Fold these 3 entries.
Entry 1:
Amino acid sequence: MLALGISYRLCMMAMPFPILALTIATFVDSPDLRGYPAAPILLVLITLLSVATALTIKAKPEVVKSPIYQCDKGTALLMGCAGGVCIMLLFRLFGFFGDFGGRASELNFGSKSLKHGETEPEENIAFSFSFNSFGHCFQGASAIFLFAAVHRDLILPILKRPEGLVVADLLANSMIVYPVYNIVKRGIKAGSTFSTSSFCNNASEWGVGFIFALYTGFLISAIGGGATADPRKTILSPQTQKLLSSCRIVSGVLLMLTSIAAAVLFGHSWHVKYDGHYTEDSDDDQGLIFLFLILPLVVALALTLYLRKRDFIHDEDHKCAEATNEMGKVGGGGGGQEVI
C-alpha cells in the first residue's frame, strides 16, 4: 500500500507537465489565437486543476495513504476505458498518419463525409455552444460520482441521507450512456466513414466532461485528505454495496466494448477519402440528449426507492447507531449525536 501511495503521489505531482505540453502544442497550432481556440482554453483550465492537485498533495503527502484512494474494479475499468477513448480522440484530433484537414486548437476534426444531396462538407467541430455540446459534456462529467471523496465531502454532507449515496453512485454509471449510443449510431449509419463522422466531435465533448470530472475528483480527494474511509462502505448494507459494485463492473465492460469498437472502426476507415463516400450520419436530436440526461436520474431514484422499501440500504451496525441516537434524543440526554 505504501508503494502504491508513493506511485500515486508521483503521478499526481507529474500530472501537470504532459497537460502543459499539450496546451503549448495547441497554442503553437494557433499562435495568433484566431478563429475558435477552444482546445487551449479548456487545457488551461485542466492544467490549473492539475497544478492545484499537485500542490495540495505536496503540502499534505499523507493523503495518498488514505483509504479514500482505494479504487474498486468497476471504477478502475470505467476510468481506464474512458481514458482510452480520450487518447484515441486525441490521436485523431492531431491527425496522426492521416490527412483530415482539421485544426487541433479549434477542436476541429476536419471535414465530415458528404451526406446525400450535399455539395460542401460540414466541419467536424466540437463545442459549438449548443445544447447538445454541453449535454454531451455533462454526461461525461457524471464520472465525478466515481470518487469516494465526493461522496464523503459533498454528497453525504449536502443530502444528509444514505439514500443520496446510492443515487449518486448509480448516476456514475450514466457516463457510459452516450458513448454506447454514439458508437452504435455512427457504426450503423457511418461505419465506412467513421473517422470523419460526428463520433469525433460528439465523443470529444463527452471526453472533456470526463476529464474535468477526473481532475476535479483528484482535487477534492487531495483537499479532503485524512484517513476517513469511503462512506458507502461504512453506511450502506453489503447487499447494496455488492449491487452498486456490479453495476459499475457491467458499465465498465460496456464502455470497454465501446472503446474496442471505436478503435476497430477508426482503423477500418482511417484512410477513407471524402470524395465518393456518402454517409447517412446525422446530428443528435436535442430531445434524445435531454432524455439521456433525465432518464439515468429517474432510474437511479426508482432503484433507490425500491432498495429502501426492501430495507437493503442501511448497514445493520449503522441502523443500530441511529436507533441509539434516537433513544438518546427521546430520553432528553441531549448529548447524542445524530448519525446520518
Note: The first helix runs from residue 2 to 14.
Entry 2:
Amino acid sequence: MPASSPVVVVVAALCCALLLCVDASVHDYTGERFAALGNAFVLNGGSEGVYASPAADSFIRFEKVAFKRTPESAAAAEEDGNRTATITAVVSEAADRDAVGGSDVTATGVRALCCTPDMASRGACTEGSLVHRAPNGTASSDSWPKVLSASFVPGALEAVFPDETVAVSRTGMYSLRFVHCDASLDVAAEGKTIWKNSRGYGYLPGRMAPLLAFYGVMSLAFAALAAFWFLRYTRFWREVTPLQNLVTVVIALGMVEVTTWYLDLAEFSESGVRPAGTTFWAATAGAVRRTVSRVLVLLVAMGYGVVRSTFPGGGGAGARVAALGAAFFAASEALEVGDHVGAVSDHDQSRTRRLFLVLTVAALDAAFICWIFAALSRTISRLKARRMAAKVEMYRRLATSLTIGVAVSLGWITFEVHFKSTDGYHSERWRVAWVIPAVWQLISFALLCAICLVWAPSHDSTRFACSDECGDDDGEDGERPVMIRAGPLSYVDNWACYVTQDAKIILRTDSGVYAKAGDEDKRV
C-alpha cells in the first residue's frame, strides 16, 4: 500500500464523520450539555448576524426546546427541600453584552453571571439566580437582552420552554446562551431554534448572506473565462500542449467549485438547513482545485513541457511533487470540510483543531512557494544560457504574476489575522466578514487569468513547447544560434578549425572529412 494511503483513509473518515453532524440556521439540540463558566454553567445555543427590516420578518424562534435532568439531579433537589432548578435562556446582541452578569469577578477572572452572596447582600439580585439588567438602565419592552426561563417542578425530570418567537428589531450580531447556577444539576438539551434574516437573505446567517451574490458573480466570471479558453482551444486544437490541457482542468474545477458554493448557499437560504452533500462537494472541489493549481505551477516552474519533454523525475523529484501534493490535499480537504460542512456559527468549530489545520496548510503552501521560485530561477537561468529569448520573457511574466500574487496574499493574511484576533465575528464587523473568503477567491481567480493569458492556445503554442530534442542538449525549437561556416582552412586527425563569415573561430575536437564550402554542413 502506498505511503499516502493512511492519510487518505484518515481524511475520508473525518469527512464522513462531519457529514453526519449537519447543522443549519435551524439549530438542533440533541443531548448537548452545559460547561462551567465562572460561577455559572453555560450552553451556547447559537451565534449569528441578523439583518432587521421594517417588515419585522427577522426572528429567533424557540421550538420544542426542553431540558432533561438525570434522576440523581432530581433526587438531590428533593433532599434540598424540593429546591426549584431554573434554566434561563438569554438572547443578547453584541452591543448589550454587559447587560448579562454582575460587577463581581470570580476567582478565575471571569465576570460572575450568577448572583453571589455579596451581590445579594447589597440587594442587587437574588442569590443563585442569573444576573441580567436592561441596558442603559431602561426597562422598556424593547430592551435587550431577552430572557426566557423554564423550571423543574419538584420530582419532574423535564423543563420545557414555551414555543416563543423573539422578534429582531435592529441589525446586529446575536447570541443565545442557556444558563443555570446549580452545580448539582446535570441536564441535556433537546429541541431547536430557528434564526431567520430579512432583506431577501432567508435563513442564511448574516455573515454568510452576501456570499450568495458573490458566488453568483464568480460563476459568471468563470463562465466568461471558460468561454475565452474554449474558443482559443477549439481554434488552435492542433497546437494545444499538455500544459494547456492541465489549465483546462483547473478552469473546470474552478467552475464546479463556485457554482456548487452558490447552489449550497441558495438551498441553505431557502430551507434553513444546510445541504451536507452539496457543501461537501463544494469544499472538495476547492481542495482539488488548489492542489492541482499548485502542482501545475510547480511543474511549469520546473520546465515540464517547455524545457523538458518528460516529467521532471530526476533525483526523485516526481515522488516529492506527488507527496507534497497529496499532503496539501489531505490538509486542505480536512480544513475545508471542517470549516463548512455542518458549521454555521463560530461555536460550531473547534479552535484547536482549526488552528492545527490552518498552520499545516500554511506550512505546505510555503513549501510550494519556495520550491516554485527556486525552480523558476533555475529554469530561467537555463533558458538564458540557451539564448531562448521568447521563453525567457514568458517565464519572466509568469514570475512577475506569481510575485504579485504572493505579495497580495501575504498582505491579506496579515489583515485576516488582525481582523479575527480583534474579535471580528462578534462585533459590528461581522457584516464585512464575508470579504475574507471572497478576496481569497479573487486572488486565486486573478492568478488563473494571468496564467491563461500567458499560456492561451495560439498558432505558435508549440513554439513554447518542448520538442523531441529537449533535454540537456543546447538545441531546442530551432532557437539554437547558427554559425555559418565559410569553409575548412585546415584539419588534422582529431580536430578541425573553421572561420565563420563574422570572423568567429570554431574548433571541433572530432576527426572526419567535411564537405567543401557551399555544400550541406555535414560529415561525408
Note: Residues 209-463 form a domain with the Rhopdopsin 7-helix transmembrane proteins fold (CATH 1.20.1070).
Entry 3:
Amino acid sequence: MHASTQILFALLICSTSAFHLPLARHGAFLSQSSPLVLTRHPGGVLAAKKSKPNPTPDEDKQKKAVLDTVLNSIERNYGRGSIMRLGDNDSMEVDSISTGALTLDVALGGGLPRGRVVEIYGPESSGKTTLALHVAAASQKTGGVAAFIDAEHALDPAYAERLGVNVQDLLVSQPDSGEMALDIVDQLVRSAAVDVIIIDSVAALVPRAELEGDMSDAQIGLQARLMSKAMRKITGSLSKSNCCVIFLNQLRSKVGVIYGSPEVTSGGNALKFYSSVRLDTRRKEVLPDNVGINVKVKVVKNKIAAPFKVIFFDILFGTGIDSLGCMLDAAADFDIVVRKGSWYSYNDTNFAQGKVRACAVLEENPEMREEIEQQVRDALLNLKNGDPVPSSVVAVDDIVKEEAGGEAGGVGEAAGVETVVTSE
C-alpha cells in the first residue's frame, strides 16, 4: 500500500473513533423507541440527545390560550376579520360575476371573481372589450355599479347599450394620463361602492412624464414602474371592497426571439403576478354570411379554479356574445335538451326546428331559459373524474402542441393538458 494511502486510512479510522467514543461514553445508543438528535457539545464533539417529546394536554391548552389572546389583540388593533381561521369563516368563498358565456363561466369556476384583479389580453378585434362589457352588464343586472376607465377614448355607448349595459348608470372616465387613471381606480376601489371597474387599456396608460417630454426622450420602464406601484396600492383594498378590476391589455412582439413565444403584454410583469385570472382571447374565424366571429378564450392563469382551459364561442356583430347558442349546445351535450336532426325538444316536447329558431324560442320564454341554464350549470359543475365527458368539455393534447410556442402566456404557463369547453 502506498504511504499516502496509509496515512489517509489512519486519519479516517481516528475520525471515526472520535465520533463514536463520546456517544458510548455518555451512554447514548440509537434505538427505535428513543429518537436521537446529534448536537455539538462545547468541547467540539458530537453527542446525541433525545428529541423534545410531544406536548402534554396542559401545554396544548396553554398554547391555545396564548394564541387566542394574540388573535383578540390583533382584532382589537386592526379590526374584525384582519386575521381568521379558514375553517371558521364562511365568507372566504369568492363571489363571481358572469361573463355572458355559460361555458366560460364554468371554465372559470363560476365567473370572474370579485375582489380580484383580472387581465384580458389578445390581438386587435378579438373580443376583449365585448367580453368586459358583458361582465359590466351582468353586474348591473344584479344591482351592481360598473365603471369604465376609457384610456383609449374609444368607448361606443350605443354598442355598449346593445350588449345590455345600462349606459345611463355606467360610470365613465377618460383620463389625461396613466397616473390620473390609476388614481381614479384606486379611489373607486377604496369607496367600496363599485362592483366592476374596467380599464381599457393598459397600453394607453401613458405616464405623465412621457406626455410632457419630447418625442426624442428615452422613457425606459416608466409604464412598468407605474403599473407596479398601482398594483401594490390597489390589491390591498380590493378584497375588502369586493370589487372586480378588469385590465384590458394589448400584445407586443419581442425582437430577436428564437425560442418560445415572441408575444408579450405591455405594462411590465407586475400585472401578470397580481392577476388572479388571465384570459387570452383570439379570433379564430369569421362566421358564415359575416354575421360575427368565432372566438377562442384560453384561461392562462386562474387562482380560483383549474387553469389551462380553452373555450370557443361566437360573438355576433351588434349583439355581442351568443349566450343562448352557447347554452343550447351545452344543454344538448348533457341531453337536457334533446337534439334529433334539426329538431330541439325539452321535457319530451319539440319546441323548435333549427338552432336559430330554438334560440328565438328561449329568448321569448325566460322561465324556460333560466330553468335550462340552471340545469346546465349544475351538470357542468358536478362533473367528476371518470364520468362520461360531453363534447362541450373535452380534454385534448393537440391544443397543447398547437399553443406551445404561440401564446403570450409563455411556454411555462401553457404546459400540461388543457381542457376545452366549446359551444360548437
Note: The first strand starts at residue 36 and ends at 40.
